[in-house]
Amino acid sequence: MRVHTAMTTLALAAVFVAWPAGAQDGDLARGQEVYDRWCASCHGFDGAGEGPAAAYMLPRPRDFTGGLYQIRTTTGGELPTDDDILHVIDEGMPGTTMPGWQDQLSRADRRALVAYLKSFYPGFETFGAPEPVSIGRAGRASEDRLAEGRMFYDSIECWQCHGGLGRGDGSSGPTLEDDWGYPIRAADLTQNWRFSGGGSVEDIYRRILTGMDGTPMPAHADLIDAGFMDEEQLWSVAHYVRSLSPERVPRVREVVRVERREPGEVPSTVHDERWEDVDSFYIPLVAQIIIEPRWFDPSVNTVWVQGIHDGEELALRLSWSDRTRSPDPEWSDFQARVIDVMEPKEGDPVEPGPLPDGITLQFPTNIPDGTERPYFLMGDSRNPVYLWQWRSDQEGVEAATAQGMREIQPLSGRTIDVDAHWEDGLWQVVLRAPFTAEDPRNEVEFEVGRPIPIAFYAWDGDHGEEGTRGSIGSWYFIHLEEETPAAVYVAPLVAGLFTVGLGLFVIARAQRRERLSSEANGHEEVSTTTTA
Ligand code: HEC
Ligand code: HEC
Predict the structure, then answer these.
(1) DSSP 3-state assignment of 281?
(2) Is pTM, for the whole model, over 0.70?
(3) Which residues line ligand 2 (CB under 6 A)?
(4) Who contacts 364 (Cβ-Cβ below 8 Å, separation ≥6)?
(5) Averaged pLDDT of the chain
(6) 73: Cβ below 6 Å to ligand 1?
(7) CATH code given to domain 3-127
(8) N or C: which end of the chain has fewer CB within 10 A?
(9) What pLDDT was estimated at residue 511?
């Protein structure tokens, strides 16, 4: 399969003599300059993927010296074209730490980088420029095609790795590793916006046809060559995979609308059909890398939230992809391998062992006026928070108050009903509670018409997550709909304007905040990105 690597050993000597015949020296010098500045911290000055930041990452940054590239328009086992490499540099690899550089570096610099990356692997010189595979046309995704695609998904056994409904929960999961021996997870096919090579049906087709070299994701071109299926049928598989994700990349909306229903119509179970026509809100989560021990490889990256209330009680249904129902003994070895390579570089060493999945909802103890909210990592001594903590190894939900990540006190307050269900790589949890508090000093009181801050944390036990090692989100608002919808939207809109953005932005702020917090132990000023 791996033509170029197999032949390389023989060709190496010859290449070294001839090097660098094909590359332009100017390009290479410029490429090196840009590379050393922007890429070496992850990929290493020598291109071997072992920069100083690499040990905090899974997947690890690419080792360029072996010539293995995942995102190609060329046949499996072949080198990529220059445009393929440029494409990855431009777009980055979603779902990994590999950033896109299109807006950061000039086109000339990005071209120079391509030349420089290729110089790490002499095979590019030896074997010359590979040709892209022609892939024909996607055609339309009719019902029939999706059914055909599903049929082949089953018969080719994509589910072995990706699971029956595509959430990456297949039975081979615990054994998967990349060519460098690092544990790797099969992609969650319901999140195409996180595919490293792009989420369009054409991107998906190429990945299935030519595979992702260096990973267990196989090429399937041989099935066409062997007459097991034709190109049209492989396109059907690509359409089917595409259909598992939403039509559009989900949009972050800062305000989660909790719909109003008639008294007594608040569901308490996961499978209640009243959830079916309730709007679902996308909450992205990111790695907790602020408080030590930090965690750079979070497993849960999205929570979907729905809400219903009746003026006296509210219920939230949370849904998120999680490959396993932790703790699952089948995954204990995988967990140990993840902990081994991701072990926090600070604090006490982490011992592998059974850990549950979990999700925590955080509310301010008192609904703040204006734009202030407690520190989003479990509050602080001046501004405590009120928590609902759910774990897969316990009945019910544990309420608590917190004044920081390490200052969490259990609380007996209002009764919170819970129903939880895991199936096919999906957790669904319903939490239902009355508006009024038993212990109003420590518990938030829900109020119709008033935006209430809410934040989420999640843990995947079989991925080695617990405590500060998990996924976090910034503050959002839940808004309990009033009777007359017209007046409702002003308040949440205003609130939304003040909401902290996500991802690196949150983290940058939080790190600054972390530095400041030892001096002043006050409120977190809410950033006004959208109004600045
Ligand atoms: C923050 C760390 C980080 C930085 C900085 C970074 N990369 Fe990466 N890069 C990665 C990781 C991680 C991967 C591997 C992702 C995977 O295997 O899924 C990767 C993969 C790649 C790949 C392989 C693409 C493929 O098809 O397999 C290329 C090419 C690449 N990076 C180029 C660059 C260049 C050029 C720069 C600098 C302009 C750069 N990277 C900076 C983390 C980084
Ligand atoms: C042996 C296990 C295995 C099998 C079988 C397998 N995959 Fe994968 N697949 C993976 C892994 C692992 C990844 C993630 C690679 C990565 O993240 O770098 C992946 C990634 C993907 C992706 C995401 C591509 C991207 O750009 O990130 C798609 C789409 C996909 N697979 C579809 C399929 C389909 C369709 C089939 C069946 C025809 C299939 N896979 C069979 C292991 C497998």
Answers:
(1) strand
(2) yes
(3) 59, 70, 156, 158, 160-162, 172, 176, 184, 186-187, 189, 195-197, 204, 207-208, 212, 215-218, 220, 237, 241
(4) 373, 374, 379, 383, 385, 386, 444, 452, 453
(5) 88
(6) no
(7) 1.10.760.10
(8) C
(9) 53
CATH architecture of the domain with residue range 143-243: Orthogonal Bundle (1.10)
122 or 526: which carries more pLDDT confidence?
A: 122
Residue of 93, 160, 162, 241 to mutate, ligand 2, most atoms within 8 A of C-beta: 162
pLDDT tens-digit map of 28-73 = 999 999 999 999 999 999 999 999 999 889 999 999 999 999 999 9
- Asked if residues 285 and 471 have their Cβ atoms less than 8 Å apart, the reply is yes
What proportion of the chain, given as a percentage, has pLDDT over 90? Answer: 76
Architecture of the domain made up of 255-517: Sandwich (2.60)
Looking at residue 262, its amino acid is: E
CA 70 to each of CA 14, 110, 123, 215, 358: distance values in angstroms, whole numbers, following the listed order? 27, 19, 16, 8, 33
Map tokens 């508090």 to a residue: 437
Residue 101 Cβ inside 6 Å of ligand 1? The answer reads yes
Strands of 215-341, DSSP E: 255-260, 281-284, 286-287, 302-309, 313-321
The per-residue DSSP string of 453-482 comes to EEEEEEE-GGGT-BTTBSEE---EEEEE--
